[in-house]
Amino acid sequence: MSERKMRVLSIGAHPDDADTSAGGLLTKLKRKGWEIRLLSVTDGSAGTYRKEIGGQELKLMRRAEAARSGARLDARYDVLDHPDGRLEVTLEIREELIRYIRRFKPDLIITNRLNDYHADHRNTAQLVQDASFLLTVPCICADTPYMEHMPVVLYWHDSFKKPYPCQGDVIVPIDDTLEDIVQHASCHECQYFDWMYWPDNTELIDWPREQQIARLRDRFDRLFARFRREYDAEVRAKFGDEADNIKHVEVYEISEYGEEPSQEFLDILEK
Ligand SMILES: [Zn+2]
Questions:
Q1: Where do the domains of the chain lie, and which CATH numbers do they carry?
Q2: DSSP run (H or E) holding 42
Q3: How many whole angstroms separate alpha carbon 228 and alpha carbon 250?
Q4: How far is the CA of 245 from the centre of ligand 1 (A)?
Q5: CA distance 155 to 213
Q6: How do residues 219-233 score in pLDDT, each as one tens digit?
Q7: Of the chain's two ends, which shows fewer C-beta atoms within 10 Å, N or C?
Q8: Is the bond into 261 cis (omega within 30 degrees of 0)?
């Protein structure tokens, strides 16, 4: 009998969050043979300034783009039907997530922290947190078999300082996956090559695609090099002399609501 693959579920609010926010770690886990699943809690239908495509047309576009990015990770990318920009923390969605997570049975969940500028991000984090605690409780959503073990839950990095900055509990060197992150993001054309240029850089919308991708590559290069500098103490504590060879890192915080990861589990993520 073949051994069960380890499973990671990345949950974001919008159809480009789950893959691009953890693109380095997900690529590494794919290379290590993990099964990857991506989930967007909202339909992404509001992510544009073009009112003529917002709604149904954008929703379909974003599902197609998410599927393309998921394919790069050999992953199914599910997009739930909750309207973008209007996500609320409800019992109904919490139980939808409990059932979804239980059916996939992840060893690891990755998601947003609870503090964030976007209400959809905050509410996704709250929903995942509320669902996580109940995954192992048999009488909740009793129609879907409960999980016997809690997964580890990680939060991907954000730059918000209040109430406290993201803790560098897990440091993932990503020098060999930086290009994969660029390619995942490039699948989301309506976001990275249009919506994100609005309203301050709209002249970039007409740039040739290769030039746009080069600009994106430069942006990610600088972002993950900044994380490397900001979390220098954590990188040195974990990697010792090897730290000098590490130029780019992803940073994750461990959620207190998930299983406490063992050192062996952390080694899989970080090495
Ligand atoms: Zn988002």
A1: 7-270 (3.40.50.10320)
A2: strand 35-42
A3: 8
A4: 32
A5: 27
A6: 999 999 999 999 999
A7: N
A8: no
